[in-house]
Amino acid sequence: MEKIGQRIYELRLSHNISQDALVEQLGVSRQAISKWENSQSVPELEKIVLMSELFSVSLDYLVKGELMPETEVAKSENNEDSGFSGKKIKQIFGFVFLIFGLMMLFLNFVFSVPLIVEGLFLVFHKESDIKIIIGYSLFILMIVPFITIVVVAFAIGFVR
Questions:
Q1: pTM of whole model > 0.90?
Q2: Is 59 exposed, middle or buried (0-12, 13-18, 19+ CB in 10 A)?
């Protein structure tokens, strides 16, 4: 059975990394690497993790010599490459709703400004009580959705 020192040695050679280069990357002495490769000592867990990342192998392979089954390798690659995490989807939906909210805000503003102006005109001219009631009603009916759209757009767009 192959020992961890032999796997470190073979991986270092297969990646064309000298002992000196490995010393720099792991922050250990050259003697420590020599002892690991000759199975005179075993690296610390922290160094084993660093080497598994450096050599792009699993910890199981580095420690036990076990290769990952191909199906699990394919699964791990697919999971990493699938692209859309829950956070990413929330950000996309937030952005879409923000854009939609801003478009609705713009359209509401364009179509409601004339009605708001007419309502204010009726309020300030006070020709009759019914016109005052209609003026206030138009003002409230047009300004409340406008404010609601602004609040909802910012709430959906910026809450993540």
A1: no
A2: middle
Q: What are the pLDDT digits (tens) for 87-132?
A: 777 777 777 777 777 777 777 667 766 766 766 666 666 565 666 6
Number of domains in the chain: 2
Could you tell me the CATH number of the domain that includes residue 16?
1.10.260.40
Cα Rg for the chain, rounded, in angstroms?
Answer: 34
Give the separation between CA 37 and CA 55, rounded to whole angstroms.
15
Question: For tokens 């610390």, what's the residue?
Answer: 44
- Distance from the first to the final alpha carbon of the chain: 51
Give the residue numbers spanning the domain of 117: 86-158
